[in-house]
Amino acid sequence: IKEEINSKEIIYSKESFSLGGYQLKLNPRVLGPKLGHDVQKCIIAAREDKWEQDDKGKILIEGYILEEDEFTLEPISNEDKGIQKISGFNVFIKLDLNITSDLKSEGFARDLVRLIQNIRRDTKLEVTDKVNVEIFCSKKLKESFLNHYEYISEQTLSHSLNIQEKIKSDDNLFTGKISGEEINLSVLKKK
Q: Are 183 and 164 in contact (CB under 8 A)?
């Protein structure tokens, strides 16, 4: 799971979150044929929190009983926006949405790897070809790339990885952007 969601850490906890209740979201596509014009009354009642949930998980609203595919319940958190209920289960996922400088730096390195891999693909290099990479970028990006030098080298099969703190205009260089900043690259097959 950790790899699939690109997370640093997963903590399993029985901690209860301070929820301000649930917001009922109706599925008008499914409810329309069942309720006809009353679907609008139910939407208004949902917005005004005029609904109940029975012990079987069904929703009672405007005299109708709704089935699971006709609605979703979204928790209203008093803590933060990073909490989501898993549909059909009494399980909540809480994500720490704070982006630290380390995470930002790693993101720049991942963006660089993606850019180099795209260049490798576009220039028809074989997956196993070793390359010599030269990068021209800002000081901020250079620091990030140097902090993740080994990762970048491994992921891109770079025999050499030279990072320069300047932007260079040259028709032989590829140009890209990372976090809105221009970057120039040379990616050549190792001879």
A: no
User: Is residue 81 a contact partner of residue 19, using CB atoms and an 8 Å limit?
Assistant: no
Residue pLDDT, tens place only, 63-79: 999 888 888 887 665 55
Distance CA 132, CA 159 (A): 6
> Measured in whole angstroms, how far is the alpha carbon of residue 104 from the centre of its chain?
13
Half-sphere exposure of residue 36, counting CA atoms within 13 Å on the CB side?
0
- Long-range pairs, 44-50, Cβ under 8 A, ≥24: 46/71, 49/21, 49/24
Q: What angle do CA 128, 134, 140 make, to 5 degrees?
A: 120
DSSP character string of 40-83: HHHHHHHHTT--EE-TTS-EEETTEEE-GGGEEEEEEESS-S-E
Cβ neighbours of residue 72 closer than 8 Å, sequence gap 6 or more: 24, 25, 27, 87
- What pTM was computed for the model? 0.61
Segment 109-128, tens digit of pLDDT? 999 999 999 999 999 999 99
Distance CA(31)–CA(28), nearest Å, equals 5
Provide the phi-psi class of 59: left if phi over 0, else alpha when psi is between -120 and 50, else beta: beta
SS (H, E, C) 103-157: HHHHHHHHHHHHHHHHHHHHCCCCCCCCEEEEEECCHHHHHHHHHCHHHHHHHHC
